[in-house]
Amino acid sequence: MWKTMKIGWGLAWQQPFAVCMLFIYNLCWGVLLYRMVRSVVVPLLHRYPGDELSREAVQLFWAEAQFQLMKTDLIHPYVWWAVCLLLTRMIITPLLNAGVFYSLEHTGVNAGYRFVQGIRQYALAFAGLYALQTLLILAPLYLLVRRVTAAYAHQANLSSLAWDAAPLIAGYIVYVFVVQIMVMYMQFGKLKRLPAGKVLQVLCRNVLSVTLLAVGVFLVTACISAAVTGAAMLWAGFAAFLGLQAFRLVHMFLKMWAITTQYALWSTQID
Prior knowledge:
transmembrane; 271 residues; transmembrane helix; membrane
């Protein structure tokens, strides 16, 4: 396992252009979401009753907010903005995936050229796989929300609800992991022009190795993230702020490492 992770680390170092593209994309996306949320939250905070007002004023604030949401069209523009952002992300993400995965397969070509070439050749195929992944991930949420809501109606406190909902949430997390890994290997298969049956056969045959690699990379990433976050909290200041911003680039590299590690395993099973 460690040998495959080491090979994946080396492959990730060979993809600086793809890592930078992912970094820029996530940075722009984060800034856009921040500005949107800030435009909604800050005006509400200005109207929120302060400590000097009575409890009845706070209750009146929440009652008015509920009335505005339920009885007026105040929320409609924000819903449309959210839908547009979701559709934009669903369009851009598979394009970037196509460039990243194509770059892994054609390391001998110029970095920028192979990234763009991947988008040109596999945009539609990767968009279809991304749509399938999104559908498979969102579909069980309806049942999950219904189960949690039903459990909430029969539980006396939040701790009891947490004990009942924890297995459902844990199962859903495992399900999302399986779907993401399956779609990742389907994308590998697209680059080799392999049928879905062959890809699933390879995945099922190496399910233990795939899981161990994913868990290993996740643990390393979690440890690094915890260390950086803890350091920023202990030594708060401008330097800590710069460190957190620089860590975004490191985080993108770690995400690339997660992909290249699985690609290293895939290559040993196909070549």
